[in-house]
Amino acid sequence: MGSLTAAAGGGAAYAAVPESETPDRLCGFQDCGTLCRCRFDQWYADIRLRYGYGMTADPEAALYWYRKAAEAGDRRAAFNLGLMLRDGTAGKPQPETSLTLLRQAAEAGIPEADLALGNGYRLGLFGAVDTSVALAHYRAAAEAGLVPAQHALANMLADGLGIRRDLESAYTWWRIAAWKGATLSADALSRVDWLIAPKVRRRAILRAEAWLARH
């Protein structure tokens, strides 16, 4: 049958999953409160240096300050540092160091770090592609309420990446994300509706409603 997420705009959907703490005008979702920490708080200077708000962007300086904060025990800074090192934002990518930092941030309860780990394992940014591990990290972030991770998890379930294909669960997670305002998830739902039996769709919707009631 081929890739369900390809039929549902999956390539663009994967690419649109943002991870970092950018302001809402830069992220891919409107309801970015749990995604981006759009409030400029203690990371204000680092974010300005990283993206150039009100000054010339200086990723190397941002990297320096993230590193200082991470060394002082700030797990949010460790997340941002890990993301920059993974992507080589201020130099050559450092996958091993990035992986260590992102794991520390994820273990500290930062769901964006699980999303970054999921993307990294799915794309092979830490070495070999590992869709099973990617799926586990997407699921952790999705269960924590992170909308982009919910969408990514649905994509993985629909395409059978890291797990046997499970369209009912994929529909459930797309539905949850869509109810939270994720337009990519809403688009995916509209494009796969014809693939799902009415009773399966109803079960998926009930599961989504139950999840939202618990959270």
Automatic annotation (TrEMBL):
Transmembrane segments: none annotated. It comes from the Bacteria. Signal peptide: none annotated. Gene3D superfamilies: Tetratricopeptide repeat domain (1.25.40.10). It holds the Pfam family Sel1. This is Sel1 repeat family protein.
